[in-house]
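User: I'm curious whether this sequence folds into something compact or stays loose and floppy. Could you predict its structure so I can see for myself?
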Amino acid sequence: MNSKISKRLSEGPVVLLVWDGFGLSKRKLGNPIYGSKMPVWRKLWKQYPHAQLRADGSAVGLPPDEVGNSEAGHETIGAGRPILSDKVIINNAIKSGSFNKNPAFAKAVAHAKKNKSTLHLIGMLANHQSAHADFGHLIALCKLVKSLKAPKVALHLFTDGRDAAPHHSIKLLEDLEKVMCPNVKVATIIGRFYAMDRNRNWKRTEAAYKAMVNGVGVKANSPAEAIEQAYDSGVSDEFIPPTVITNKDQKPITVKDNDAVIFWNLRSDRARQMVKPFIQESFNKKNKNSFERKHRLKNLLFVTMTEFGRQIDDAIAAYPHHETSGTIVEALRSYKQVYIAESEKYAHVTYFLNGGYDTPRFHESRVRIPSSKVVTFDQNPKMQAEQIAKKIIESIKKDFDFICANFANADMVAHTGNYKATVKACEALDKTLKRIWQAVEKAEGTLIVTADHGNAEEVLDNSGGMDTHHNANPVPVLILNKQLGKKRLHNGTLADIAPTVLELLGAPMPKEMTGRKLFVK
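Assistant: Here's the prediction. I'll summarize afterward.
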């Protein structure tokens, strides 16, 4: 770290707001941000320095043609540089052939062979744009288990419909079936609403678990039938109920004692809750308001594609996580800092932003506000914006030097494809912005508003259909500080946020950071 400390530009605290999924687009059609009443945002945008930041592809450590996501966005913001994503690391391993030599995968196959049991491949049936899983990784796994001569292989597929079109899974299934080996059978089809919850809605997780372990759920004779019968009922991919595929004897393929599992999802935030009932001892006691299992599966070897963090210690990570050094949290080790979010985005503003550490470090405080218990967030587009704003203002009064908060509204509501609700979500942000800026201004501080990726600016496509997934649009950055006068900002990437925060606070910039300070000299 460069030990030279410069004069701080911000007399008071620096407050960084990450408006999740709030991108920039010139399109008017299907753009709730354009269609919303946001007088505070628009007035401040005209009055104060602002710019555009890239939040997609290689700018945030993703494959060059991939849209941005919350994990990569927050990692880049916190690290002040793009961090090579797990997806890129695994893609490179597949290209080099080292993927086929990964000892964790070999161990899972060997376990199934030794016990004459079934190897289960569990994860999301996703396209190449998803942050949670990759179709290419699933294909590579299928080829690998074939080459290792795994005798019995079952697939448990989680359908997307959120980071992809609402009815895209049937096409992905067709592509998958073209390369599946005869000994590979699809055992369950489950919408991600059930299998990838992260907000402790345990009823959803229980339904997914019981389908995979107990064979309990909707029945179908084939995976295609499972998807099509959901479509016929007006249910999109995200919400397909846990469906068990039965054979000619009406017997399901379930996860049993002595089996092996490979969970190919990449991101931990929407995987941990599903993994826990498979492997945790005293699961029901450790997870309040969860559910009772019939029994804890015995001698189950469980492999995860990446590391899923604490409480998943009994799983073997094929590609272990390595903490990132030289982050904004480390650079501000002598400053009081607090990170605030509701539970839907809590992992992003803490674990991902601080370099992959589960617990607070240095003078870091964390505030988690429980998200509302709704089926989809278009039912409550305001979400917890008011409570988050309240915590920010309290933190300013408590003399925190750096306050970082995530507002989930724009992203979570845009994922529903509900235009009117997304308008309300954006307007909720505007209402909190006025109060926050008044508090920051009173404390002679600096307010930075940015986003981690685009989404809410495009919720309808050109044909008027729902667009529920992220995009590659740039995101805004707006810096409010009356003492800075007419300073200008250059366009850049999310990696430029941390160096700018450090400059404002007069803190040294770690040598690892490659981002540039946003102020034009």
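Summary: The longest strand covers residues 184-191. The chain has two domains: 14-82+325-505, 87-319.
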